[in-house]
Each structure stands twice: as C-alpha cells, then as structure tokens.
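User: Could you go from structure to sequence for me? I need the amino acid at each position, not a summary. Structure tokens:
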C-alpha cells in the first residue's frame, strides 16, 4: 500500500447494506413470481386501502399500535446492546428490504409507475418519525462501549408514539385526499 492509501477495513454498515439489498431482491422476486390470482388479491386490498371507508381510529387502536411499534424499537435497542448486534441488524435489514420491495412491487403491479408514488404516500408522514429512530438505534447498536442511553431511548419512544399517531390518524387522511384525484 502507498503512503496515501489506507488498507480496506470491513465495516458492519457494509454488511447491513448488503443484507438490505438482498432483502429488496428477494421481495421483488417474490412478487414477480406470484401467481396472477395472488396479484389480483393484492389489487383488491390496495383499493380497500385507498377507499378510506374505515371508521375513525380509536384510542385503543392507537395504544395497540404504539405497543407494537414500541416493542419493535425495544427489541432493536436490546439487540444493539447484545453480542448479536451485527447479525441481528442484518436480519432486520433483510426483513426491511423484503417488506419495502414487496410493497413497492405490489403497488407497481397494480398501478404501474404510480405505484411508487402510492408507496411513498402510504408511508407518509409516519416515516418522518420512524426513520430517525431506526437510524439512531442502528448507530447506537454499532458503536463500541456503553450502549444503555436510557434518556435518549425515552425520547425515541416519544418519537415512535408520534409516528404511530400520524400513521393512524394523518396517513389515512392523506391517502383519502389523494384518492379523490
């Protein structure tokens, strides 16, 4: 190696990104290999999703969604403090990539290029809250040293609760508003 070249050093973020793209590939292949009957059912679900005919969400539904999202954040937080942080985050990346690709591919099968915009709309505005939480948990999990971050985790749980509230109340409004067009 020359004076100005550093040797290649493996970073856990490279493996996590690779796992994310493997998940994207798997989700895309899965949707493309599905039979026409299943693809038709996805279209029916998509129309029901856009219709906005559901009753307004209740506080019980909000509590249930906050519990689900908070449990996921807690698992990622605990995973980041364990010896299995790298493999665990890689599995989470595969799952996230698969889910993302499955949704985008399913919506694209039904709506063409507009499916991508429909997907972006379906995760707005909750991802404004969830993405920073996921990013902070990942950074904490990959950092060496003390990883408890109790006060910071409480803030992340508040952001998660705000994301759940926006997912339950604001997102359906955006979806219904755009379905008029």
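Assistant: Here is the amino acid at each position, in order:
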């Amino acid at each position: 190696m020359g004076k100005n070249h550093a040797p290649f050093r493996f970073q856990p973020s490279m493996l996590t990104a690779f796992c994310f793209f493997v998940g994207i590939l798997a989700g895309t292949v899965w949707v493309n290999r599905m039979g026409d009957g299943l693809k038709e059912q996805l279209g029916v679900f998509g129309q029901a999703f856009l219709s906005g005919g559901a009753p307004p969400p209740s506080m019980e539904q909000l509590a249930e969604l906050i519990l689900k999202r908070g449990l996921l954040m807690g698992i990622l937080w605990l995973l980041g403090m364990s010896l299995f942080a790298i493999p665990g985050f890689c599995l989470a990346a595969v799952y996230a990539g698969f889910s993302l690709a499955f949704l985008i591919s399913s919506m694209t099968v039904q709506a063409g290029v507009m499916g991508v915009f429909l997907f972006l709309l379906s995760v707005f505005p909750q991802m404004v809250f969830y993405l920073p939480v996921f990013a902070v948990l990942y950074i904490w999990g990959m950092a060496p040293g003390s990883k408890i971050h109790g006060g910071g985790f409480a803030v992340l749980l508040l952001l998660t609760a705000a994301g759940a509230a926006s997912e339950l109340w604001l997102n359906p409004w955006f979806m219904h508003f755009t379905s008029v067009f």
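One structural detail worth keeping in mind: The chain has a mean pLDDT of 85.
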